[in-house]
Amino acid sequence: MRKDQLVDLIESKTKRKFERKVKIPTVKEFRKMAKELGLVGISRLSKDKMMSRIEEKLERVRRDKENYFEVKCPKKALRGTMTTWNFNPLVQTDVQTFLERTIPRRKDIFEEVRKKGIKVEVVLKILFVKMNPTDTREDDEKVVYFNSGYKVMNQGTDIVEELKAIDEKIGEKIAQETSEKSGWTLKRLICLYFNTDKYSPLKGSQYIALPKWIKDKKAVVNVGNNDAECFKWAVLSAEYYGEVDPKHVDRVKQYQRWGDELDFEGLEFPMEVDKIRKFERMNPQFAINVFA
After folding, report:
1. Which residues have CB under 8 Å from 17's CB, separation 6+?
2. Any domain includes 204
């Protein structure tokens, strides 16, 4: 019989109580626990801070279960810039209730990962069924993914309001799927995927060199500007590249002489995509296509 078993036996049979020593896990054991809980970035913390983070995580897990869902350890992709958290329902509820219950947890995740800015996406995986009016065959079933699309959020974002707006968009898509004419009804919520991705907007004055295999074809003019007027130089090069030195079609100074030939009045640089239509109205000879 082990010592701890003997102590338990004596305490159960008598009124005597023994003082027990509480074993504090080692740093190595804390790191192992953190890994199992999906905690990242805490390996260099002190023992006390590490223990505090683990306790916070365990408390979140407890709250999640009270709200009838569990969150799986995050999965990373795209060289670690994109992270996915799986929210699995422990009991079946309607979509709105499930989404509302997960908002506080999604807010916590956002607070943990946000820096200068991130993109957030919600994908809801649902099993639908279409009842067969006869008994000749089984009911039809299908799995559908409802995607909110990415929403950029930063330090000033009201995360709760944005998450509610995202959920409302998904709710509208589900309503279309389950319209009376479709015959499909929701059978089971399978999972909610909460994706966060690093947001790194390009600066308006940032020049991006072409890949070598495109540059070697000499089929694309890519003006190497160092100001915020990328759009202006792209348009001028499209209009006048046949009139410049063919050896230097990518130089700004080759197009400066035509800077006043087109109407850029009232346009601000860097150019926003939704302002391109204004440029087209001012310069009707142009029809701009944007590929990204």
Report:
1. 11
2. no
Domain that holds residue 148: 68-198
- The radius of gyration of the chain's CA atoms, rounded to the nearest angstrom, is 29
CB 123 within 8 A of CB 213: no
Whether 114 and 153 have beta carbons less than 8 Å apart is answered as yes
List, as own/partner pairs, every contact residues 220-229 make where C-beta atoms lie below 8 angstroms and the sequence separation is at least 24, other chains included: 221/249, 221/250, 222/250, 223/250, 223/251, 223/252, 223/255, 224/250, 224/251, 224/252, 225/252, 227/269, 228/204, 228/269, 228/270, 229/269, 229/270
Domain assignment present for 289: no
Same domain flag for 75 and 182: yes
> Does residue 24 surpass a pLDDT of 80?
no
Residues recorded for the chain: 292
Residue 8 and residue 35 in one domain: yes
Q: Identify which of 130, 164, 165 has the alpha carbon closest to the alpha carbon of residue 144.
A: 130
Closest CA to 102 of 88, 116, 112: 88
Q: Are residues 105 and 185 in the same domain?
A: yes
Q: Which of 92, 154, 147 is nearest to 125 (CA)?
A: 147
Dump pLDDT digits (tens) for 194-220. Answer: 998 887 665 545 677 888 888 888 888
47 and 105: one domain? no
